[in-house]
Design goal:
This protein is mostly helical. The protein has 15 helices and two strands. A two-stranded antiparallel sheet has the order 1-2.
Length: about 300
């Protein structure tokens, strides 16, 4: 193995990075270790998956590349990287090669979560279609965390959810679900998809059996409607209201979605909320103001 730079990368890493298919083939046929890793634990398969090099991914897998290898720094697998990039062909190839769709990185994110965060609609749809093991609950053992308790640090937590349709959801430290994430980012297509998937977007614990709800709240009592209003997403606000979102839901500071929209001067969102009967007289606890005071 020829380590050729300070990062511990080899000729195979660099050839893959540059999409040099023939060089990759030559190195492998010469007996080069397909699973050689850099100092960070990155293999050529990580690189090919991240860059979207479908042909090289196939070549590496045929040569015996380990499909579920995780890098040392972040615990990221090739499937995480392919999901990040929305490379659906590579995602399918990795899955067919027995990639673990439930594997979490060091932030406790699955490939599905990465696809949602990056607004990769096709990847989200495909990963959902695969289903996951309802009995698997990933925990961050090094934190000593209970599966029903969120870690207090500013990172993704070991709280996992077994939902009605059979997959495990991962939530942020404040209890944020995939639906919250998509609404917050303004990813309407993914919000639509998640809502159509029913219970998959809900946060539940072992003592609760609840169906999907567009009103599911975080620990700070913010709902997807609050988050959508805060980003000025007219389309998502309208969609959530059509799906039964509570227009008068209040967060921990007793703020409605109208407070959020008024504060940011999102007039179209304000109009929609008013048309849907939002109470303009709700006073927030933090500043003692209603939405009219904020807008003034």
């Amino acid at each position: 193995m020829d380590v050729i730079n300070k990062f511990g990368e080899t000729s195979l890493h660099l050839a893959t990075e540059d999409d040099q298919i023939e060089t990759v083939k030559h190195l492998l046929s010469s007996g080069f270790n397909v699973n050689s890793a850099s100092k960070s634990g990155k293999t050529a398969l990580h690189i090919a998956a991240r860059k979207g090099y479908t042909q090289i991914v196939k070549i590496l897998l045929e040569a015996g590349a380990k499909v579920n290898v995780a890098d040392v720094r972040k615990g990221i697998t090739p499937l995480h990287l392919a999901a990040d990039g929305g490379f659906i062909d590579i995602i399918k190839i990795l899955v067919q090669s027995e990639a673990n769709i439930n594997q979490t990185n060091k932030d406790n994110q699955t490939p599905l979560f990465r696809a949602v965060c990056k607004n990769r609609v096709e990847a989200v749809s495909y990963l959902y279609s695969l289903g996951v093991n309802i009995d698997v609950v990933q925990q961050k053992e090094e934190l000593g965390a209970d599966m029903h308790l969120a870690d207090t640090r500013d990172e993704y937590t070991p709280l996992h959810v077994a939902a009605k349709e059979g997959f495990i959801d991962i939530v942020k430290v404040n209890g944020q679900t995939l639906l919250h994430q998509a609404a917050e980012e303004g990813f309407f297509e993914i919000v639509d998809l998640l809502l159509k998937k029913g219970a998959n977007v809900n946060v539940i614990d072992s003592k609760t059996d609840c169906g999907a709800s567009v009103n599911v709240a975080t620990k700070s009592k913010t709902t997807p409607l609050h988050l959508a209003a805060d980003t000025g997403s007219v389309e998502i606000v309208s969609w959530l209201l059509k799906k039964g979102a509570d227009v008068n839901a209040t967060d921990e500071n007793h703020r409605t979605a109208l407070h959020y929209a008024a504060e940011k001067k999102f007039l179209e969102v304000v109009k929609i909320l008013l048309e849907n009967g939002v109470n303009v007289n709700v006073i927030d606890k933090k500043h003692g103001r209603n939405a009219l005071h904020i807008a003034a």
